[in-house]
Each structure stands twice: as structure tokens, then as C-alpha cells.
């Protein structure tokens, strides 16, 4: 089958070329990168920073304002939870009850369709029995979005329309009105938007503040005023009227338009005189009750958050929102301030995921480009044939483009993890071309084929060469793909995170293999058959090359363009060389230098401060060291192999010891769930004490933002206290969220890649105002618009010299945010925090859940556990905190039913008066065009700001007289719940903590578990009856992932072994080739261990420490690392399969029958395959170098995946000796057995 495909496309080369053009154009069209050049129509793959790994959950939010958490829990949350538990596919239900709000999180099984689950919830809510919920309470289903839905936060600010500078001039009420009734609705219309939630400012209200003295004088009750207000705000329609055959529509206009309309409303008539509201109350416009707000760098702000719909392309949604903002900005209001300045309302983003997405994808694009360049360099060096190098190198970008096409039409979005699948597959993708082309070159170099230059003979030669190795390549590809089955089998968060990687890696390998069969033979034919026989044409072409190089240098200032000139000059003087191949070697050297120059200029592993020359030398040295080691291996392969065959036992000690050492490291290495992605932002989430009020919270948030904004590396600091009006934000008023956007280390362009700026000969940056800036003279932050962009300039670093990484920035944040009354906060980032909060209910990735019969019991045990956990050595003591559930101060008004009966007052009337007069009751809503404002009735603040004042609240009796509240009820101080949380109706509390940097999550939890169990055993820690606890957060996810991997990884390895068995037909041969997996496995763990050793690579080159360059630190065994190992398992068998297949074929041809003949056959076969095996190892190793040194966003996930592959492939190179030795051993044992059997038969026949 494979041979027929090869033959067809080799014979029909026009079809092959058309197919190549189709793949290139189609691939560029779907590419997530800006590769189209503005010519090809764009239909790109959906793009995001990371996969959406949140739980499959829906949120039911219910508002019952003015009610305590206890009322919310008992009357809303609990009955709703019990009703929703019966929905099919529900895994668990978590809930939060807080002041005025209930949030219920229904977590479904991962295989339940998102919108189906919403329809079932709505069906259940619509069929609730009457009386389940209090009258007038209506639960609502949250937005159709996930934890990653919050993609765009913004503020509304007054700015000068000409200069764009802030002007102010707008108060919080005006901005909130503009947000609620104009901006919010406009942005909601953008395609892909699920919800736009408002934050900050306050809602405008008409407030009627009662005057109890006037009420007593006019003998007017609260109920009378309530009725009067409701009756004073009403429009009606009175059908139509015809006058002179013309129809007129009749409207009765009675809606409240301003304060005076309310003041004139009549409450009652006394002695023929109307008593108006203005006679018994003060009417004004004021702020509505709020449970959240925004602060920007110390100033109260108003804004909103855009939430993307489930399944929408985040980047596309953000672009749609930005287009909508541009559309509405002309219509946003403006005013002229007292000083004559024009202030126009503008939408200013402060969290825009576009930057994170582009920087993350930019990191991948850069790594892919570097890998492709490195592969080209390695191929040129190892093949020493420019035509062959062009064939192999051209396959890489084409295969990548083909992968993009498949991703587009199978629904795989482009993100850091998905595209990492291509990055870690590059080495294996190159292997296909290397093996095919190496086989073609070997055939062409055979003496009998020297005369073949083209035509049918060359077609047959290429067909025969490619067919010979196609079976081995197919087996190698299948084993590599099959090895990734465990990743496909992952579930929950780890499955959502890494299954896109499994798909893209599979697509990339399949594309490389199929295109290798279809395109590579044709490209090889075209390149190897083209010969320019005319000396004149060659001479003209070389002169053109010389001129082209010089012209490009002059126009673009491109030094590498001189490579064209050098090639042209070398070709013109080629006849002067004694060795005819010398000219070819010089051209190869020139090409190599140009490729290294381009790679060094883009990669800059030593950093831009080291200069281009130092980077070129470093890159060349890295490549030279790895290639030299492998080339020495190839040169001395025969001698080493013969020694190994003669000293088998001694040699086998090396791989055996490596495997044992690797397995020992595996058992001792730390474990964690997943490395966190660098999002370019931090989220500081402290909490205040349960008793703090709104005024204190405003002071806290202002102080935090001012301190954060003073850090030079911080670009913006926006603080949020409480919640926004969205079901995705279940935060109490005492919780703070400071979004801290720090500057990228280097100034970036719009595509998220480093931008260069003009410098002079002294290394000073030239400024547009004519000045200069020299970083060595002291740090100074220079605005981007003051610098001069220059393609040949230097990158501009925006961090102080002492700030080396993001951990240093976080430490600066911690240092300035210690405020009395605020708890400490774990290190979080916006996306990470949303995922953690919505998947666990906690505000930290590590924590402990405490279950108990009631809140007081849970709190008692929680505080005891909090103190115990502070003694765990690997836990940061200041980070341990039990989220207080009890402690909010309450004023409880306890009714005296005897006195109420005596005065003829019923409970409902009294409670309604309390609700209206104290809490404030919204009686009606005004209609003012597009705007709607509530009308609230209540006592003046000074009459309800202390218990004594409350006790004088007037209550009407049955006789019409009014008596003070103290005659009917007692007012008591007490402590109650601030927030009540539960899981599946059972009450739960949380203790959160953070680990010391470098410690593994699983090790920390195990250490904490031992300490708690020991304290309980010793009686130092006593838990109340009915209390239990369990560790949650990332630890819980890790335990589940480990259990799953323990099953699927061995199964995948068995399948790999089965594939090898189908290829070699014997168990022994299959096991011999499978041995490479164990060696590679050990090599991966050895490199992980070395990364954590301070002495390893602890030296400097050119002032750059190698441990810092390769970001060497303790790497824990996470799901990302396991994915790297799984990728390694497939690659590890490739060299063994290639070598073993040829050894097998050699034995079939020669059928050696003696020990010496077997060894000669093994050596002969090994020598034939050591070169492609060394080439595949070299390309895989060197291609991973840019990944190992990458520092951009997304590197946090890529690097842990690359380490096992690099270490495994480095050690796995010994399988080039292990496989031949074991093959020889096995074959010799078979011959010995046959000879022994033959001798026994001969002896038996002699005796007869």
C-alpha cells in the first residue's frame, strides 16, 4: 500500500506540485500566526492562551437583597441544592450563601454537553413546587461561560479627546449610568459575548428619607407613604381617539421625572389639606446600596467585565468588542469643565487577554522558527549535501502548515499547550525526511548508480530507496503515536489541558509521514535531476547572486545577504580548486554561517545585552558540541561496537546502572499537579476581617492600589472589593482582588515579540526629543513613544537590574502590601485564580476542606488546624489562614409577640416597616427614556445608625396610634455567619496555605498530613465531634491524575510492544527494541535530578550563568513532565526500530551460521544505520535547545515537557549499541541451541 502511494505521486509529479501549493496556501490561511502577508484570505484557527480546563459547571444565582447569609442558606440555597441534585449527570454541587445573594455551582460530568446541562437546570427551576422559595425570589441561570470567560476588563474615564490625557470631571453616579444603560448594552451586542457585568460606582436612586416627627404630627404611617409612592409613578395608555377622521393615540404621562414630582405626591388629606411627601420626608438623589467597587491607582473607578460565550474564539470576541467600542466611542457623552477643558468618556481597558494570547503564541512561533532553523543547520552539517538539506528542510514548514489545516477542521484551538505538541514533535518530523533522503543519497553513491542523473532511472532509484525504509518509518511513527494514547485517556483538568497537545502532535507526525511519502520523492527528483550544463548560464547566475547580495545589503542593511555574494564568488572561482568538491563544501559553510547568524539574531540565548557576536559564538558552540559528540560516535562507531560485542557483560552494566539510577530518582522526586502559566499579571487576593464595613474596605483598596502603582515594574494596578454584578464573581464585600499588570521584561510589538530600538555606538538609546538614555547610568523608565524603532537596534529592558524574574516582582508586591487588618494572599494570576475559585471554592491552589455539623464547630476546628499547619516546615506560616465563616456582627430584632398582640400589630406589617424604614425598600422604578432608576424609602441615616435610634422607629397600631419599636421588640448584639459554604448540602470551611518556593505540592501535603495525624494522636490537636477534613486544590487534581496515569501509561507501553511484535514477529526481538524505552525513561529522570543540583552547569560563559540561561531549578514531577515522558517513549524506540529493522533484513539476506559471521553482520548493519540514527538524535536534541532557554509566556509549560525528552534522547543514544549487542547475543544463543541440538542428534545417530 505504502509503495503504491510512493509510486503514484512520484510518477504524477504535476499532481504532487499542485498538492504542495494547495497545502501551503491553505495552511497559511488557517495559521494562527501572521504569515499571510496580507495577500492570502484569512480563516485562522481559534486562538487562546491556554485550554479551558475549568470544570463542566453551571451557576445558579439568586438575589434576595437585605437578607443575612443564614436566611439565604436556609430559605434559598438549601432547598435549591436538594432540588438540583437529582439532575442527570450531576457530579457535585457547591454553594455559597452571603449577604443578599446565593450562588450554586452545579458540576457535571465532563461528557455532559454544556447547553444540554443548562436546559435541564432551567427545566428543574421552572418546575419547582410552589413554596420552595420565598415569594418574589427568582433564581437565574448564570452566563453561558466558563472560568476562562472573563476576557476583557475596562474602566470608563473622562479624557481629553485631542490629547487622550485624563481630565476627570465625571462622578461615580454619572459613569455608572453611562455604563449600565449605554456601554453595557452596546458591548453585549458584540458577537461571542455572553455577558457584560458592571463594576464600581453606584446606581442612582431616588431616596425618600422619612421624618418621624412630621409623620407623628400628621399621623401618617410608613405604610401610607409606601402606598403614595407606588401610586405616584404610573403611565397609562387610553386607547385612541378620532378627531376629524384622524386617529390620535392617548397616553397618560405619570412617570416620575425628577425629585419635585415625588415631593408633590399626596400621601393623605387632613382637614381638606393635602399632606405631600415633602411634608413628611426629604427626597433626594443618592447612591444605591452596593456590595462591590473598583479603584484605579487610588481613585474610585467605574467599569465592567466582558465575558465570552462558551466555545467562542476569545481573540475573535475581544476583536469584536474592540470594534464595538470604536463604533460607540463617537456617541459617548462629553462635557466642558469649569476650566474650559473638554472631557469625553472613554472606554479604557486594564485587563485585555489579547496581550497574553499574542505573547504566548509569539513564544511558540519563535520557538518553532528557532527549531526549524536549527534543524536546517544540523541537516546541512550531517548530510553535507545542500540539495538534500533543502529537501529535508522544506518538509518541516509544509508539515506544520498541514497540521494547522487539520487543527482547523477538527476543532482544535491554537494555544500554548496545543502548539507545544508541534514544538516537541519537530525532531521526530525531521527524522522522516532524514531517513528517506539519507537512503536516497546512499543509493545514489553506490558505484552502479553513479551514472544516473535523471529520467526514469532516477525515478526508479528514488522509489527503491524510499520503499526500503518506508516500513521502518511507518512502524516508528505508529509507536510514537500509540505512545500518546495515555494523554488521550486523561480526564478532568489534565485531560482538557493536554489532550489538544496529543492531537496536534499526532497530526504533526501523521502530516510529516504522509507528506514524506507523497512530496519528498518528487522534491528529491526535481532537485537531484536539475543540472545547469551551460557554462554561460551558470556564470550569469553567479554574477546575479553577487549583485543581489550587495543590493540587499545596501537597501535593507542585511549582513546575511552577503552570503549570496559569497556563494556567487565561490562558484565563479570553483575551477581553481584542486579538489572538485571543495567549492561545494565552501557553499555549505557559507549557508551554515548565514543560518547560524539568523538563528543567533532571533534566539539571542545570552540576552541582547551580551551583543550579537557573543550570541553567535554561543549558538555555534552549542551546536558544535552536540554534533561533535555524535559525529565522533559515528566515526568510531565500528570500534566501539566491536568492543561492546567482545565485552558484552561489562558493557551491559552501563545501561543497567543507568536504568537503576533513573528508577531510584523517580521514587524520590517531588510531585505537583501542573506548572502555572506566566500570564503577565498577578492577582492579589487578601481579605479583611468579617466585621469591616464599606468605608473601611474603600480605604484598604485605595491604600493597596497606591502602593502597588509605586512599583516601577507595575504598569497598572486596579483593585476590586466585593463583587461585580455577575454570577461568575461570588466574592463577599470583605474580599479584595487587585489586578496587577506588570510590564513585560522587554518592550514588545503588537504580535507579542520583542521590539528593537535605535542605539548609538556607545550603546545609548536615542530618544525622539534628541536626548539619550544609557541603562548603565541608572534605571529610568522610558515611554515607548519616546524611543525610536529600529530593526537593527537593541531590545529595551523595562525592569530594574535587580529584578531578574517574576518572582522578584511578586516579592516587591508582598513587601508593600502588608496592612493591619488584611490577611496575606497566595501568589495567584487572574486566569489561575478564576479556575481555582470556580473549581474548588477556595481562593488558593492549596488548601484543606473541613466538614462539620454547624459553622461554629467547623470554625473551632478550622482555627485549630490553622495553628497546626503553621508548624509544617514546607508551608509559609503567614500564608495559612482559615476563612472565617462566623464573626460578622449582627443586630437581631427579636419580636415580643405578647406586646404585639396587645397593640394589634401583626408580624408581616412590622417586618415590612422594618425592611422599608431601616434597610430601605425599593417601591417602584422610574422610566426615563433608556434609563431606569429605583425609588427607595427609608429613614434618614442619623435615625438608623445605632440601636437606640432604631428602637424609636414608629410603628402604627390597630387604633391608628404610632408607638416606638422598643415597645414591640428587643434589639440584641450577636455574632453570625459572614458567608456560608456547602458541598452537596453539607457545610464546609476552608483553610488555605501556600508552599515554600521549590517544594512539591504532594510532598507538602504529605508532610502536613503526617503532622496533623501526629498531633491528633498525641492529643495536641482535638477536632470536635462530627468534624472531618481533606486536602483539596491542586493536590486533589494530582492524586486523580496519578491514579489515571498509573493505568494508562503501562497499557500504552504494552501497545507499543505489540506494534513492535507485529513488525519483528518475535517476542525477543520486540523486547530488544523496546529496551530503549527503559534507558530513555532513566535518562529523563537523571536530567530532572541534575536540574535540581546547584553544582550542575553552575558556571558562566560571557558573564551569563548557564543555570540561569537554561532556567535550571528544582523541577517537580507534574502532569506536564509526564506528558514529556510519554512523548519520549515513542521517540525512544525510533532509533532501535531503524537499526533493528536493517539488522533483521541483513540476517535474512546473509543467514550467518557462525559467531564471527553473526557479529560481522551486526556490525555491517549497524554501520549502515548509525548515521541516520545519529542525525535523528542530533536534530531532536538541538531542536529542543530554544525551548529549554525560552523565557516568554508559555515557557513555564513547554520547558517541563522538553526536559525529559532532552535527557532521555541524550542517554538513549546508547541504544545504538544496546540493540546490536542484544541482537547479536540473541542470534548467537539461537545458533548455539541449534548446534547443541544438532550435536545431540548426531550423538544419538552414532550410538544407533
Structure commentary:
The strands form 10 sheets. Strands 1, 2, 3, 4, 24, 25, 32, 33 and 34 form a 9-stranded antiparallel beta sheet that branches. Strands 5, 6, 13, 14, 15, 16, 17, 18 and 19 form a 9-stranded antiparallel beta sheet that branches. A 4-stranded mixed beta sheet has the order 12-7-28-27. Helix 11 (about 355-385) packs antiparallel against helix 12, helix 12 packs antiparallel against helix 13 and helix 35 packs antiparallel against helix 36. It has 39 helices and 36 strands. It is an alpha+beta fold. Helices cover about 50% and strands about 15% of the residues.
Summarize the structure.
With 1248 residues, the chain is α+β, with helices and mostly antiparallel strands.
Query: What fraction of the residues are assigned to beta strands by DSSP?
Result: 15-25%
Number of helices: 39
The global form is elongated
Helix content: 40-55%
Helix vs. strand class: alpha+beta
Q: Residue-averaged pLDDT, rounded?
A: 82
Uncertain spans: none
Distance between the termini: 54 Å
Amino acid at each position: 500500500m505504502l509503495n503504491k502511494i510512493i509510486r503514484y505521486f512520484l510518477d504524477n509529479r504535476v499532481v504532487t506540485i499542485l498538492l504542495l501549493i494547495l497545502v501551503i496556501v491553505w495552511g497559511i490561511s488557517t495559521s494562527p500566526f501572521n504569515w499571510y502577508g496580507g495577500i492570502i484570505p484569512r480563516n485562522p484557527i481559534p486562538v487562546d492562551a491556554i485550554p479551558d480546563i475549568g470544570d463542566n459547571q453551571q451557576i445558579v444565582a439568586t438575589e434576595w437583597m437585605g437578607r443575612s447569609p443564614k436566611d439565604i442558606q436556609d430559605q434559598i440555597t438549601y432547598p435549591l441544592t436538594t432540588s438540583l441534585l437529582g439532575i442527570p449527570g450531576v457530579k457535585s454541587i457547591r454553594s455559597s450563601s452571603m449577604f443578599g445573594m446565593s450562588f450554586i455551582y452545579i458540576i457535571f460530568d465532563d461528557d455532559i454537553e454544556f447547553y444540554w446541562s443548562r436546559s435541564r437546570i432551567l427545566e428543574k427551576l421552572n418546575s419547582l413546587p410552589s413554596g420552595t422559595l420565598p415569594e418574589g425570589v427568582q433564581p437565574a441561570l448564570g452566563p453561558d461561560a466558563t472560568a476562562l470567560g472573563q476576557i476583557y476588563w475596562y474602566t470608563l474615564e473622562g479624557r481629553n479627546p485631542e490629547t487622550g490625557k485624563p481630565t476627570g470631571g465625571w462622578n461615580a453616579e454619572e459613569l455608572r449610568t453611562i455604563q449600565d444603560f449605554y456601554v453595557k448594552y452596546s458591548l453585549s451586542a458584540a458577537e461571542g459575548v455572553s455577558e457584560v457585568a458592571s463594576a464600581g460606582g453606584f446606581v442612582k436612586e431616588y431616596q425618600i428619607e422619612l421624618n418621624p416627627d412630621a409623620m407623628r404630627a400628621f399621623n401618617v404611617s410608613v405604610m401610607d407613604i409606601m402606598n403614595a409612592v407606588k401610586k405616584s409613578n404610573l403611565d397609562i395608555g387610553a386607547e385612541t381617539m378620532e378627531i376629524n377622521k384622524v386617529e390620535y393615540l392617548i397616553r397618560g404621562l405619570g412617570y416620575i421625572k425628577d425629585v419635585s414630582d415625588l415631593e408633590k405626591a399626596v400621601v393623605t388629606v387632613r382637614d381638606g389639606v393635602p399632606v405631600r411627601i415633602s411634608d413628611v420626608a426629604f427626597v433626594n438623589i443618592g447612591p444605591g446600596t452596593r456590595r462591590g467597587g473598583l479603584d484605579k491607582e487610588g481613585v474610585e473607578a467605574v467599569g465592567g467585565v466582558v465575558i465570552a460565550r462558551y466555545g467562542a474564539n476569545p481573540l475573535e470576541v475581544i476583536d469584536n468588542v474592540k470594534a464595538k467600542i470604536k463604533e460607540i466611542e463617537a456617541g459617548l457623552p462629553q462635557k466642558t469643565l469649569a476650566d474650559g477643558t473638554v472631557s469625553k468618556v472613554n472606554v479604557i481597558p486594564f485587563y485585555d487577554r489579547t496581550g497574553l494570547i499574542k505573547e504566548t503564541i509569539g513564544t511558540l512561533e519563535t520557538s518553532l522558527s528557532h527549531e526549524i532553523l536549527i534543524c536546517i543547520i544540523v541537516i546541512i552539517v550531517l548530510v553535507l549535501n545542500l540539495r538534500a538539506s533543502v529537501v529535508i528542510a522544506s518538509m518541516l514548514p509544509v508539515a506544520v502548515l498541514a497540521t494547522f489545516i487539520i487543527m482547523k477542521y477538527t476543532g482544535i484551538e491554537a494555544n500554548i499547550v496545543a502548539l507545544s505538541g508541534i514544538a516537541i514533535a519537530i525532531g521526530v518530523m525531521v527524522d522522516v525526511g532524514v531517513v528517506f533522503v539519507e537512503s536516497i543519497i546512499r543509493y545514489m553513491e553506490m558505484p552502479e548508480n553513479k551514472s544516473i542523473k535523471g529520467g526514469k532511472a532516477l525515478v526508479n532509484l528514488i522509489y527503491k530507496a524510499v520503499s526500503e525504509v518506508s516500513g521502518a518509518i511507518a512502524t516508528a511513527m505508529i509507536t510514537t503515536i500509540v505512545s500518546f494514547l495515555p494523554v488521550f485517556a486523561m480526564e478532568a483538568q489534565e485531560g482538557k489541558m493536554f489532550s489538544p497537545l496529543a492531537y496536534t502532535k499526532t497530526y504533526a507526525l501523521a502530516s510529516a509521514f504522509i507528506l514524506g511519502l507523497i512530496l519528498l520523492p518528487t522534491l528529491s527528483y526535481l532537485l537531484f535531476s536539475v543540472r545547469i550544463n551551460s557554462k554561460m548560464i551558470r556564470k550569469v547566475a553567479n554574477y546575479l547572486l553577487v549583485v543581489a547580495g550587495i543590493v540587499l545589503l545596501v537597501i535593507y542593511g542585511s549582513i546575511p545577504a552577503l552570503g549570496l555574494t559569497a556563494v556567487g564568488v565561490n562558484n565563479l572561482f570553483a575551477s581553481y580548486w584542486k579538489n572538485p568538491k571543495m567549492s561545494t563544501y565552501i557553499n555549505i559553510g557559507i549557508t551554515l554561517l548565514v543560518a547560524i547568524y539568523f538563528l543567533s539574531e532571533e534566539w539571542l540565548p545570552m540576552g541582547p545585552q551580551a551583543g550579537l557576536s557573543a550570541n553567535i559564538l554561543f549558538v555555534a558552540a552549542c551546536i558544535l558540541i552536540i554534533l561533535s559528540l555524535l559525529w565522533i560516535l559515528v566515526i568510531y562507531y565500528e570500534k566501539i561496537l566491536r568492543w561492546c560485542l567482545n565485552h558484552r557483560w561489562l558493557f551491559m552494566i552501563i545501561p543497567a546502572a543507568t536504568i537503576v539510577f533513573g528508577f531510584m530518582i523517580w521514587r524520590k522526586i517531588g510531585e505537583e499537579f501542573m506548572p502555572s502559566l506566566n500570564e503577565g499579571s498577578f492577582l492579589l487576593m487578601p481579605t479583611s476581617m468579617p466585621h469591616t464595613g464599606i468605608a473601611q474596605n474603600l480605604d484598604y483598596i485605595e491604600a493597596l492600589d497606591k502602593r502597588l502603582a509605586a512599583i516601577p515594574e507595575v504598569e497598572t494596578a486596579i483593585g476590586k472589593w466585593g463583587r461585580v454584578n455577575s454570577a461568575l464573581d461570588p466574592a463577599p464585600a470583605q474580599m479584595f482582588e487587585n489586578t496587577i499588570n506588570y510590564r513585560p521584561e522587554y518592550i514588545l510589538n503588537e504580535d507579542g515579540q520583542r521590539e528593537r530600538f535605535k542605539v548609538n555606538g556607545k550603546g545609548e538609546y536615542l530618544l525622539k526629543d534628541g536626548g539619550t538614555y544609557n541603562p548603565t547610568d541608572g534605571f529610568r523608565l522610558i515611554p515607548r513613544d519616546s524611543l525610536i524603532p529600529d530593526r537593527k537596534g537593541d531590545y529595551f529592558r523595562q525592569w530594574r537590574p535587580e529584578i531578574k524574574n517574576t518572582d522578584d516582582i511578586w516579592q516587591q508586591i508582598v513587601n508593600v502590601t502588608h496592612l493591619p487588618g488584611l490577611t496575606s494572599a497566595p501568589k495567584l494570576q487572574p486566569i489561575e485564580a478564576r479556575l481555582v475559585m470556580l473549581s474548588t471554592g477556595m481562593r488558593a491552589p492549596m488548601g484543606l476542606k473541613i466538614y462539620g455539623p454547624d459553622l461554629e464547630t467547623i470554625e473551632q476546628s478550622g482555627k485549630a488546624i490553622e495553628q497546626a499547619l503553621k508548624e509544617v516546615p514546607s508551608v509559609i506560616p503567614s500564608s495559612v489562614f482559615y476563612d472565617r465563616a462566623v464573626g460578622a456582627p449582627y443586630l437581631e430584632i427579636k419580636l415580643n409577640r405578647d406586646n404585639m398582640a396587645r397593640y394589634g400589630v401583626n408580624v408581616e406589617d412590622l417586618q415590612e416597616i422594618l425592611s422599608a424604614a431601616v434597610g430601605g425598600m425599593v417601591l417602584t422604578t422610574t422610566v426615563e427614556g433608556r434609563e431606569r432608576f429605583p425609588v427607595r424609602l427609608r429613614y434618614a441615616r442619623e435615625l438608623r445608625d445605632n440601636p437606640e435610634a432604631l428602637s424609636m422607629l414608629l410603628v402604627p397600631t390597630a387604633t391608628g396610634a404610632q408607638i416606638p419599636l422598643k415597645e414591640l421588640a428587643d434589639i440584641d448584639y450577636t455574632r453570625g455567619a459572614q458567608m456560608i459554604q456547602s458541598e452537596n448540602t453539607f457545610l464546609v470551611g476552608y483553610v488555605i496555605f501556600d508552599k515554600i518556593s521549590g517544594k512539591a505540592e504532594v510532598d507538602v501535603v504529605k508532610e502536613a498530613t503526617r503532622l496533623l495525624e501526629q498531633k491528633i494522636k498525641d492529643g495536641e490537636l482535638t477536632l470536635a465531634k462530627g468534624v472531618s477534613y481533606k486536602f483539596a486544590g491542586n493536590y486533589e487534581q494530582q492524586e486523580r491524575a496519578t491514579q489515571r496515569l498509573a493505568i494508562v501509561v503501562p497499557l500504552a507501553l504494552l501497545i507499543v510492544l505489540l506494534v513492535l511484535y507485529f513488525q519483528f514477529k518475535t517476542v525477543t526481538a520486540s523486547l530488544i527494541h523496546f529496551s530503549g524505552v527503559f534507558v530513555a525513561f532513566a535518562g529523563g529522570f537523571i536530567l530532572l535530578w541534575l536540574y535540581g543540583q546547584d553544582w550542575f552547569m553552575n558556571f558562566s560563559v560571557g558573564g551569563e550563568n548557564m543555570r540561569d540561561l537554561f532556567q535550571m531549578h528544582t523541577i517537580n514531577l507534574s502532569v506536564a513532565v509526564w506528558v514529556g515522558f510519554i512523548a519520549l517513549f515513542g521517540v525512544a524506540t525510533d532509533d532501535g526500530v531503524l537499526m533493528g529493522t536493517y539488522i533483521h533484513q541483513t540476517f535474512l539476506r546473509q543467514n550467518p551460521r557462525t559467531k564471527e559471521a553473526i557479529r560481522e553482520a551486526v556490525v555491517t548493519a549497524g554501520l549502515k544505520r548509525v548515521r541516520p540514527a545519529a542525525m535523528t538524535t542530533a536534530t531532536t536534541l538541538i531542536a529542543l535547545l530554544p525551548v529549554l532557554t525560552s523565557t516568554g509566556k508559555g515557557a513555564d509549560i513547554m520547558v517541563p515537557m522538553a526536559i525529559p525528552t532532552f535527557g532521555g534522547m541524550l542517554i538513549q543514544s546508547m541504544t545504538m549499541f544496546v540493540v546490536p549487542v542484544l541482537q547479536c547475543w540473541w542470534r548467537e544463543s539461537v545458533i548455539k541451541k541449534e548446534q547443541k541440538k544438532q550435536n545431540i542428534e548426531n550423538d544419538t545417530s552414532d550410538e544407533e
